[in-house]
Specification:
Layout (H helix, E strand, L loop, with lengths): L3 E4 L5 H13 L2 E6 L2 H14 L5 E5 L5 H13 L6 E4 L15 H20 L2 H7 L2 E6 L12 H20 L5 E8 L6 H5 L4 H8 L7 H13 L8 E4 L10 E2 L5 E2 L1
Parallel strand pairs: 1-2, 1-4, 2-3, 4-5, 5-6, 6-7
Antiparallel strand pairs: 8-9
Helix pairs in contact: 1-9, 4-6
The chain binds NADPH dihydro-nicotinamide-adenine-dinucleotide phosphate and 2-hydroxyethylsulfonic acid.
The site of 2-hydroxyethylsulfonic acid has 8 residues, from loops.
């Protein structure tokens, strides 16, 4: 029997594709996010398509510590504590330089990508230690290692996530808990729509004329990292579109370069 996987940010993009992929692999799933309608629909579909697994959903805003605590208490009481966490919920907000950025955008990114990811780990780890088993997959980014103008705080949050991931590898070594960080380059999801506050034209321009990763490509990477034998761990996995060399330098369909 495969483990139970908790996926944060399962209502769209990489998280939703990961849910599909892992359902196919036979994992039980707990899908979370803030958009209940999408989670409910995805859960119903997955339960219908894969009757041999158990798929549940919960509404959860990872920014709210008290909600994360109550969420895990609920899972514990329901007897469905996960042994695997795909810590995927995250966002970029805006592309403004430091002096022009909205500080509220900074708060949203820091509260979600760093503090939210930390809350999800902190309140799960005691359970994983008790079970002496587990796997935490952080959905980081190419910008955990790179920076670009306008991306200061988004990049800072992924640098921080990388530091947290590497620290957890040390802290959890006495237990049988694996830690993986996945660093995708550009993936066509709702990421840019969120970043540009619903401006579809601006979001589309990010993916026009290039051939980005699809969320399913990253979901395949997650599935691979979870599938390796128990004595193996993939500490870091970098995945990028074939047309992408750095966060900003990308080859367009016509062979010219962007960035
Ligand atoms: P999407 O915008 O499609 O998905 C983001 C997901 O995160 C949604 O399901 C959203 O759910 C969830 N989310 C956002 N804020 C919160 C919150 N406060 N609490 C709970 N869930 C939240 O983008 P992606 O799929 O692309 O992004 C997934 C992860 O991948 C992010 O961490 C992103 O940084 C990372 N990434 C993305 C890349 C890309 O180019 N797309 C490249 C590298 C990394 P809801 O709104 O329902 O809460
Ligand atoms: C997302 C990658 O380059 O759009 O993590 O910031 S990028």
């Amino acid at each position: 029997m495969k483990g139970r996987v908790l996926i944060t940010g399962a209502s769209s993009g990489i998280g939703a594709a990961t849910a599909q992929r892992l359902a196919k692999e036979g994992y039980n799933l707990i899908l979370t996010g803030r958009r209940s309608d999408r989670l409910q629909q995805a859960t119903a579909q997955l339960n219908a398509d894969y009757p041999q697994i158990q798929v549940e959903w919960r509404k959860l805003d990872v920014q709210i510590e008290s909600d994360v605590i109550a969420f895990y208490q609920d899972l514990e009481q329901s007897g469905i504590m996960p042994t695997i966490l795909v810590n995927n919920a995250g966002l970029a907000a805006g592309l403004a330089q430091v002096d022009e950025a909205l500080t509220n955008d900074w708060h949203r990114m820091i509260d979600t990508n760093i503090k939210g990811a930390l809350f999800m780990c902190k309140y799960l780890i005691p359970h994983l230690k008790n079970q002496n088993t587990g796997h935490i997959v952080q959905m980081s980014s190419v910008v955990s290692r790179e920076v670009y103008a306008g991306g200061s705080v988004y990049s800072a949050t992924k640098h921080a996530l990388d530091a947290i991931h590497r620290t957890l590898r040390l802290e959890l070594l006495p237990w049988n808990i694996r830690l993986t960080s996945i660093n995708p380059g550009m993936v066509e999801t709702e990421f840019s729509l969120v970043r540009f506050n619903g401006d579809q034209e601006r979001a589309d321009a990010v993916y026009n004329e290039v051939n980005p990763l699809r969320p399913e490509d990253v979901a395949d990477a997650v599935a691979y990292c979870l599938s390796v034998p128990p004595h193996v761990n993939i500490p870091e996995l970098h995945i990028a579109a074939a047309c992408q060399a750095t966060a900003t330098r990308v080859r367009k369909h016509d062979g010219t370069l962007r960035g």
